[in-house]
Design brief:
With 442 residues, this protein is of the alpha/beta class. It contains 18 helices and ten strands.
Length: 442
């Protein structure tokens, strides 16, 4: 499943310092599981892997099969937690090249996460005249980026099929009782799925928010949930032997020792959007009250030839967390070349995974020697089960770590600042005075 190796941090912080974190971890754990801390109305994710709505889960599977049968493309419209989790899982398990591969499932396009004209035009062009459906994901239905995109793609859908038939191809994942999108879905007859009241967006990948697009891609969501459930049970132990405790203790001890940037990386290119999901999870959860570890990411070995210079010899404010997938899905053996122009015949007969592992070990030693401590999160392989376990590992660690840090891990008040300014500049009713002030400043 998931285990953690923190042995490479002890040059930066003594082992005794990490061990001394245990009482604070125990207190944070108790705060989280008792529901007595700040943000305790957003703890639905904590037991979600076992307590999810089984009836809705079956409807998700049924809807996914329908989309697979009548659509060649699915447009998933959402921003932040409403899309990052689904894209992360699809990319990791099915490949970043999912849409380019031969398959029996629809292409999936993620929209509503940008206001770029070119990006929207390109997605419309890529869909072309193919049959498609829409999954609009928004609790309120009024968040600017997805709401604008939904207008555009809904219009394209209705132009192609007519209003009544288009409604059968729109799936709304939204609030169970209120909001603009909920009202529209009720009136138009869209099939509806629920964004739970007690699960914040960045923790929502194992709800309908993530599960419908993931299922459409042909991923086994039962295995995904089982991995998360097994992780939930395995990591519920209040002990420093718990991998979650080890990760939280290590990263907070490093933070208190002056390491204020955490770089998450992997040697699998398909992990890229998992790092984007992780950055939102930890950035929104911990970055407040002038506190927090800044979450950054790299893709190795590619970034060793670019960011690797800064990591090796730049300012010493960072540590690395490397997610290591131990078993690939096949084998590539390096051949021998008669001319040996590249000088690599010493690798002939060796497995590419072995070469990658040595690169990882060599990099870890170099970075630790250069003053960059390393945490390693080991995962057995890339599949639905282990991905579910990894998701829960990071979610639980985030909740506990936020309380160790002394912040509310479940709110994001700073996100609203840009929205107010944008509404003022766009002339939204009620924001006229702010708009005038901002335009005067510009």
């Amino acid at each position: 499943m998931v285990n953690v190796d923190i042995s490479s941090i002890y040059g930066a912080v003594p082992q005794e310092t990490v061990a001394a974190m245990e009482p604070r971890l125990n207190a944070a754990y108790d705060t989280l599981f008792s529901g007595s801390g700040a943000g305790n109305d957003f703890l639905g994710w904590l037991h979600l892997p076992e307590n999810y709505d089984k009836e809705e889960f079956a409807r998700i599977q049924k809807a996914a099969k329908k989309i697979q049968s009548d659509s060649q493309a699915l447009v998933v419209i959402g921003i932040g937690g409403s899309y990052l989790g689904a894209r992360a899982v699809v990319d990791l398990i099915k490949s970043p090249n999912y849409n380019l591969k031969k398959k029996d499932t629809p292409d999936i396009y993620f929209a509503g996460n940008t206001l770029s004209t070119d990006a929207v035009l390109e997605t419309l062009e890529l869909i072309g005249d193919r049959d498609f459906s829409i999954n609009i994901i928004s609790k309120s239905g009024t968040t600017t980026e997805p709401a604008v995109s939904f207008r555009i793609f809904k219009a394209a859908l209705e132009a192609k099929y007519g209003k009544e038939e288009a409604a059968k191809r729109i799936y709304a994942t939204t609030d169970k009782a209120r909001g603009a999108l909920k009202g529209l879905a009720d009136v138009e007859g869209y099939e509806e799925f629920v964004v739970p009241d007690d699960v914040g967006g960045r923790y929502s990948v194992l709800t309908a928010v993530g599960l419908l697009p993931i299922a459409v891609a042909g991923i086994d969501i039962e295995a995904l949930m089982q991995g998360a459930a097994d992780a939930m049970n395995a990591f519920s132990v209040k002990s420093m032997d718990n991998p979650v405790f080890q990760y939280v203790a290590a990263r907070n001890a490093l933070y208190e020792a002056g390491k204020s940037v955490e770089i998450l990386g992997s040697y699998e290119p398909s992990f890229r959007f998992m790092t984007e999901w992780w950055k939102q999870l930890y950035g929104e959860s911990e970055g407040k009250d002038l506190k927090g570890i800044f979450p950054a990411s790299v893709e190795f070995t590619a970034d060793l030839h670019s960011m690797g210079q800064f990591i090796q010899q730049g300012s010493r404010i960072m540590f690395e967390t490397i997610v290591n997938f131990q078993k690939p899905h096949g084998e590539v053996v390096i051949g021998e070349d008669a001319d040996n122009v590249d000088g690599l015949n010493f690798l002939a007969g060796k497995n590419l995974k072995f070469v990658c592992d040595q690169a990882m070990l060599g990099t870890r030693l170099a970075h630790v020697d250069g003053g960059v401590p390393n945490i390693v999160v080991n995962v057995e392989t890339i599949d639905a089960y282990n991905t579910g376990a990894l998701i829960y590992f990071f979610e639980l660690a985030c909740g506990i770590s936020g309380y160790v840090l002394g912040v509310n891990p479940f709110n994001q008040p700073g996100v609203e600042a840009y929205k107010k300014n944008m509404f003022g500049l766009l002339g939204k009713p009620g924001y006229e005075e702010l708009g005038a002030e901002l335009k005067a400043r510009l």
